[in-house]
Amino acid sequence: MNDKEMRELFKTVKTIAVVGFSTKEERPGFYVPQYLQQLKYKIIPVNPAVTEALGEKAYPDLRSIPREVKIDLVVIFRPPADVPPIVEDAIQIGARYVWMQIGAVNPDAAKRAEQAGIATVVDLCMLIEYQRLFG
To answer: What is the average pLDDT score of the chain?
Structure first.
């Protein structure tokens, strides 16, 4: 994804499902979505061990999010081996983007997302890229 496409992503996305949301403030799975929420993105935490986070109801997986909640982007904070079923769920719920954070990269899952028509960002951090593009 080039910089122009990345800027468009950040300008059009409204709701972000965070798979692998962490309750530990020092982890990227916490402070990245917290930063995005401060930028006015709606954050949906996805973690089976969490019921609420950042003032939002949390869900155990993407399929548990009510259908009326339109997920624009799924950002993944999970080990690479866990990524393929998350991508399958992202396809099922109609997400427009999948973002595999640094360290959450699974090339086969990225290819599957692209084949399903989902724009995919791989091995980049949303916080770093937002700051790089918008200052």
So the answer is: 97
Are 17 and 33 in contact, with CB atoms under 8 Å apart?
Answer: no
**Alpha-carbon gap, residue 24 to 39, rounded angstroms:** 20
At 57-104, the pLDDT tens digits run: 999 999 999 999 999 999 999 999 999 999 999 999 999 999 999 999
Q: Does domain 3-134 have CATH number 2.30.120.10?
A: no
Q: How many angstroms separate the CA atoms of 22 and 46, rounded?
A: 9
- At residue 92, the 3 state secondary structure works out as helix
Tally the residues of the chain. Answer: 135
What is the C-alpha radius of gyration for the chain, rounded to an integer number of angstroms? Answer: 13
Can you point out the beta strands (E) in the chain?
Answer: 15-19, 42-46, 52-53, 56-57, 73-76, 97-100, 119-122
CA–CA separation, 39 vs 16, rounded Å? 12
User: How many Å apart are CA 64 and CA 67, to the nearest integer?
Assistant: 9
